[in-house]
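This section describes the prediction task in plain terms. A model, or a person checking by hand, is given the sequence of a single protein chain and must write out its three-dimensional structure as a string of tokens. No templates, partner chains or ligands are provided. The sample shown here is typical of the held-out split.
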Amino acid sequence: MTPTPQQTLRDVFGYDDFRPGQREVIEAVTDGRSAAAIFPTGSGKSLCYQLPALVMPHLTLVVSPLLALMQDQLAFLARHGIAAASIDSSQSREEAARVMEGVQRGEIRILMISVERLKNERFRAFIARVPISLQVVDEAHCLSEWGHNFRPDYLKLPDYQRQFGIPQALLLTATATPRVIQDMRERFAIDAQDVTATGFYRPNLDLAVMPVAAEQRARAMVDWLGPRLSTSGPRPTIVYVTLQQSAERLTAYLAKAGIEACAYHAGLPAETRDRVQQDFMGGRVNCIVATIAFGMGIDKADIRQVVHFDLPKSIENYSQEIGRAGRDGKPSECLVMGGRDTLNVLENFVYGDTPEPEGIRRVIDEALAAPGGQWELMLNALSQDSNIRPLPLKTLLVQLELRGIIAPRYAYFADYRLKFPDGPASLVARFSGERAAFLQAIIDASKAARTWHTLDFAALERLGAERGLDTRRARVITALDYCRDQGWLELESKQMTEVYEVLAPGVDAERLTQELSTYFQEKERSEIRRIHAMLDLFESDTCLSRRLAGYFGDDQVPERCGHCSVCRQGAARLPAGPDQPPLDPQQIAAWCAPLRERYGDLIGTTPSSALLARFLCGLTMPVFTRLKTRRLDGFAALEAYPFADVQAFLDDHLAP
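The expected answer:
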């Protein structure tokens, strides 16, 4: 007799009862329907696929955006005796092969991958041969262009579900507005009755906004945090800042004030980040000063304070970050200290990601000109050539896919480096006849440095023709992989080249450019509106808990929670940054002149006002690296000014 979900919950997971919403989602999935779970951070979304995976006939495939999230969930599953594994970039080829064998034999019930793994043609060919019962999309808000943390490759997940014949999908997220939920439902054809949202109100969280001018904020942080950390017993605390240097500076300031803290940000070595996170999880560090790089995938129930020293990026980010507090249900404090002085930084993140029409057109023209309809590209090189940052460039490529202009076919590494532990001759000596000649040709076509040889595929192709050898790339890669697996050589590969088929070579390039430019401009406006919605929340004169929940469509919240700063003392008014002097047309023209000259020499055209504004505001663009703009006096000269104001000023005062 098949055990009931309640029995499985108790016998396998050790819980007496379901948390709110879990039963409804699990029943929908086990009844054969696609579903979505919108639960607050720490409310048990993962169980909604973990339990059904035990009773479904085939594999459960989980797509997760971060390695940290995968490792946390795999550790949980291992503790409960559930056969699960991941295929990720940290594994060796042998480790990945063992996982794939376990999946093929049906021994592994849950396989976790990143969405990028599905771009790999070899992996797609493998997974297409595996029966799959359920596709799970973790952090599913990433698939909506109107949600936060949009990941362009997520847009292709519905197509992958159809391609692999997966009958059901389960979408999981903690932060989705009604518009995003509608987007998620439509993309995966989920019935409204199978969307379960448990609400965003957390009665144990005290939400507060403390208006503090920038120059007084660090002192105010010490005054607020010091007494809380000096009480008996640990009070684990996360302090969020926007910039890496801010994390380092604030950590040093707290140390001088007698508050022990550790900095955490993406600029630190990986081993340092791992050590800091483990020390925090183990209670050896009580306070972390971090960029938003910290927090995803951690499961620490007793975080008592989450402080935003700078404004968060959006309401969704704020909700996700404070959701790490008080998962044990005990009272916890969430404080926003920021003023409007960091508003320009947040907005500039957005403006820097909007590609110019000229760059979009360059990408389209390159695709349409691909010989034989096979377009090969290296993302970083195309980013430099088009002057589009890598993430929006990925978005552009996905949009071209969705419009039927291109289709991904496969990817390969452009550069291969070889090292021979016992020397090249000893490798050739292991073989005879044609195989020995084949390996000798590989060695002869490799440029030798002190320890590494770099394989020149064009030279190898010529040698193959001269010597009558089969030197097709697929055979070469297979041979190198085999020799590496045997320990006969060391192999490094880099510079991923992606190959697309051009499906619509006759498309109207000008019209398509205009269409995609409009798309990116609307995304820009949407992101700026998102930032200002967050400011409206923090300056609200209505209960913060109610206003926050209402943003996510949850109206089952008291009119007044009684545990937020608005309920206690009324609305906050975030202080503006310091007044800036009026812009000087002559000075700005002088700053821009060297850039305009360099740009004209390199590109052959005049830079747009948007590009000049990015230069003056200190935003990084791919072309700026080639132009060495950081050496120019004008770079970041106006970083304290709003980008939109600088661009408008240039449009009005600087002749083209």
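For orientation: The two ends are 78 Å apart (CA to CA).
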